[in-house]
Amino acid sequence: MTFVGWIQTLAFAGVILALTRPLGAFLYRVYEGEQQPLPKLLGPLERGVYRLSGVDPRREQTWVEYAFAVLAFSALSLLGTYAIERLQHVLPFNPQKLAAVPADLAFNTAASFTTNTNWQSYSGESTMSYLTQMAGLAWHNFTSAAVGIAVAIAVARGLTRRLAPGAPKLIGNFWVDLWRGLLYVLLPVSILLALVLVSQGVIQTLSAYRDVTTLEGGKQLVALGPVASQEVIKELGTNGGGFFNANSAHPFESPTPFTNFLEMVLIFAIPAALTYTYGRMARNQRQGWAILAAMGVLFLVGVTSAYWAEAHPNPALAPLAVSQARGNMEGKEVRFGVAASALFATVTTGASCGAVNSMHDSFTPLGGLVPLVNIQLGEVVFGGVGAGLYGMLVFVVLSVFIAGLMVGRTPEYLGKKIEAREMKLAMLYVLIFPLIILGFSAWAVVSPLGIAGLSNAGPHGLSEILYAFTSGAGNNGSAFAGLNANTPFWNVTLAVTMLAGRFLMLIPALAIAGSMVGKKVVPAGPGTFPTDGALFTGLLVSVVLIVGALTFFPADSLGPIVEHFLASAGKVF
Prior knowledge:
Radius of gyration: 23 Å
Helix content: 55-70%
Largest sheet: 2 strands, antiparallel
Oligomer: single chain
Structural class: mainly alpha
Strand content: under 5%
Number of strands: 4
Strand order of the largest sheet: 1-2
């Protein structure tokens, strides 16, 4: 662990903190302001889309209507991407004449990108045509991110709005929230920063792949494509699906330390800023800062643990004549090193992104445990765009209820009472996640179809299976890549896992918003537990850790933790 390594981490944290307020204020103006940015330029375009699509922007929806719109839009998007993949061999912009994507892989990929997971069981440069990458996958990079932000804003409205008695319980209009996120946030930022990436060497071309002669005199096929335009939204929208199989370790996706740093900043920018937006919506900025502080504590604990583990030699390599003076460099780019790799791994799994600049499968057992635990905590360590905020708000409701039990009174949050209905929905949200992960993992470890894809036996093989379903249910998309998941069994089960992890958890969150939005606001009293200070931040962090630890600790103990002790004893599978 070096001084320079710590400076990278602190500089990253400082940039994110500096961006939180201005970007959060901008997002508040986009979704809740009386007038959106650039009204003369973008206003006519926004209104034109509403007229063409028959949307009345003044008509708001109940939580049921909002959820139905989310599900309908996502289902149609999934079917459209599936069709493009299956027909890519007869569609244009396919200079390499790539074949149609097999049905099970096409379903997996369509589900993956629809749910903002971007799990990839394939090598992008050898499987997907340019049209599929642009019209299918990049489309979802924008829309799935916009859906996540829209749902987060809707849940925030449910908690923060103060309605008159008898007023309709409305939480916004999904179509308006969706389009504003695309028009005012994701598209303009992506266009601008794609040009920045191109200036740094990220490629952007529709040319066919090139046959080149290497310095050794051999022949190599160099894959090309429209990469920069997809790279920005891949990070900004916490998508993670790489144009190339090597993802952000590929020099055409991230050629310099600056692009590596910029991509990490993009991953955390919107999830962090939404906490400030929430504070503005709650009319108490300290509420947003308390949530941001909880996310920050979890992140700093994770990155410190991962950096410490990877800065030490890998015990599994100790018998080999390999220098580990710089720590565990297996699976890492020399141009990034241990510090930037550990930081990137913590950021991408904390933010439900899944982009990687190193191979998590090659981390030390404890180093690999950090990305796994980040996802298992519910992807609330900043989390995905939108998903991180509404996931953390569910934990806020749970924490407030626990605090209420401690003092023996009905819990309140922002002046609204937390009652039985909200707690049932919150527990449903919390229990769905481990049920999906542990249920499918248990099936895979006893199924010949499940273990057929393993490249490692023993605890590391279990870690690969557990990580795959954890990544799918958490809509993260990163992997312990020693698992060959491109089989019908894995493609179908992971697709179901990703769909369940997105939509079966999204619906209870919206239901909580619908239940809370119409509640009467009562003044704070002597027994009201404050939710905007350090004490509540500590309670919130504790609840997140305890829920994750109690649920997944037995499984993690049989995987990465056992592997650590065995490797330390010189036993490697």
